[in-house]
Amino acid sequence: MDLLPLEALTTPAALVDLDRVEANLARVAAYTREHRLHWRPHTKTHKTAELTALQLAAGAMGATVATPREAAVMATACDDVLLAYPPVGPSRLAQLMALPRRTRLTVALDSVEALEGLGHAARDAGRTVGVLVELDLGMRRVGVQSPADAVALARAVAATPGVTYRGIIFYPGHVRVPVEQQESALKDQGARVREFVDALASEGLRPDVVSGGSTPMLWRSHEVEGLTEIRPGINVLNDRNTAALNACAWNECAFSVLTTVVSTAVPGQVVVDAGSKALAKEEGLAPTGGYGALLDRPELVVRSVSEEHGLLDVSGTSWRPRVGDRLRVVPNHVCAAVNLHERLHVLRGDTVTATWAVAARGW
Amino acid sequence: MDLLPLEALTTPAALVDLDRVEANLARVAAYTREHRLHWRPHTKTHKTAELTALQLAAGAMGATVATPREAAVMATACDDVLLAYPPVGPSRLAQLMALPRRTRLTVALDSVEALEGLGHAARDAGRTVGVLVELDLGMRRVGVQSPADAVALARAVAATPGVTYRGIIFYPGHVRVPVEQQESALKDQGARVREFVDALASEGLRPDVVSGGSTPMLWRSHEVEGLTEIRPGINVLNDRNTAALNACAWNECAFSVLTTVVSTAVPGQVVVDAGSKALAKEEGLAPTGGYGALLDRPELVVRSVSEEHGLLDVSGTSWRPRVGDRLRVVPNHVCAAVNLHERLHVLRGDTVTATWAVAARGW
């Protein structure tokens, strides 16, 4: 495509700073190399084949996805795909079985019902699908509850034609503890993982894959004993919540929403055209609250949002942008924000050098 | 299209119950006829030309929109479109000016900057665009603050070639008061509107259009003195928040999300495949909290959501759906939920009789 200046974009527009993306990729690549962890980024964060290709080029060994559509899109760039979501229902299974034959597919699940459906679909399709048994390590969302349950399900996996047992998976997304408690939290996580691994090993079901990790504790993943693979999603783009957790620096935030000031009629307030439809209405972990902050003035916060309106509180400053001015907002949660946009505009500096379809939205 | 049974749909899927839509339309049509109010529904709720066509057939006199894309889509079904959003920036203005010549376009604004841009664009396009001066009646989002400011802006509108002054507009979306305080709230609103109208009239700028109204107080709109037009959006589909406000009955909720149980591994909890990406993460006004409730068991609540997971608390009941079962969830805020779906599946009973593209998503 032709190069475009930033000013030519219609707002609200989703922007990706490619210099920052490359730095973020290099950092996680170096980290995972140093600690001999497999790096399988969760691609739901960006939902584009293009960014998956960059992640693979930087050293990722495969892609993680949450939906069959994400699997289909990422399979155009990547031959090793993990669906970290229970594959339940005939249409989801049909979508999965329609993946290219070359795609090495692995699926996480926590129930015999999901396993049976997957086994049937795989046999009908003449494929072999890898399975990871999902564990609940305290997040209480999905996952088997005890080592005995894990052993029972792993045994069922091993006995089901069409699928092959590959190991265990968990998501420690609930582990967001203050720095001084992180070491013991990671030790606890490692001890809990070991209970499951030992129980499985004693039944001849030692997991080849022990898949964990999340962005908030990304840089300490190596402290979790026994981990073979991490699946950070957010860290390729980062966001305001990740910065609030000190899991990235503010200048590692590679995603922002370009927005236009549309009203300054209410004193002390600036209204921009990025509301919940552009930023997502996701609670903030930053102590200053709100739904996002200005890239260049992170102390200025989008205090409230309705669908098409973002309300910036400027009462504490003398800065007064005018109707028509453009601002860039870093949202609290990048995955939710990306999902609201049809395309990502890719920047080098202030020049749009490419536009990527967010092809993996939906299901 | 061929008729489909509900079971054939991939989940999560957005469903619209057409019998309920028709009843909702008939009720608001009768109400606005009785009270001689113009009915200009806000089509951001459903974002489809098909539902706009049904609203016009039921008696609506035009469509309200929030974005240029909504304007373009609704203009295929409706020749009288109100953009209830400041038209700021060259690309938004270009999109508006590209509307069909037959479209009677009116725009709400609250600043001289927005007015000047619109006037330029209209003159360049050889069109005349109607303008409503936006008032802030207490919501503190957009809108001029005082009758004097309204007079100044209306005067500027009247003096700007390419645009024509049509009246005033406001959004009383903040008025969500207990039933026993509604009468005085509506009287206050009427008194405030009268201040603005009197000030404008005394300067020869009496508004032909006085546009207000929202779903929460819809059925008492006639108590606001001087109102000529109402713009309810949600009431065509309704949602859990509207039911919580007693502005609709639960069986008037015409929108739901079909979802599949994907995990029951955590005791007392059922996980469905409708999370924040399918329901939207919008705070609930219902006293039972959460992000949505089951259509057939409204006491069962989606307690928390992540992107692909909705967590139903079933600990207080003996009901235990199984992995693979399908449920229908009514979300808190229908507009935000519709915006997340590519299409609406239209039901008569349990049969899908049509599928409508949510063509007006994005900007």
UniProtKB/TrEMBL annotation, chains A, B:
Reading the lineage from the top rank, the first entry is Bacteria
- A Pfam family found in this protein is D-ser_dehydrat
Give start and end of each D-serine dehydratase-like domain.
254-348
InterPro entries noted in UniProt: Ala_racemase_N, D-amino_acid_metab_enzyme, D-ser_dehydrat-like_dom, D-ser_dehydrat-like_sf, PLP-binding_barrel
UniProt entry keywords in alphabetical sequence: Lyase
- Please give a single GO biological process term from the UniProt record: D-serine catabolic process
Q: Which SMART domains match?
A: D-ser_dehydrat
GO MF annotations, alphabetized: D-serine ammonia-lyase activity
Q: Which family does it belong to?
A: Belongs to the DSD1 family.
Name of the protein = D-TA family PLP-dependent enzyme
Q: What organism does the UniProt record list as the source?
A: Myxococcus llanfairpwllgwyngyllgogerychwyrndrobwllllantysiliogogogochensis
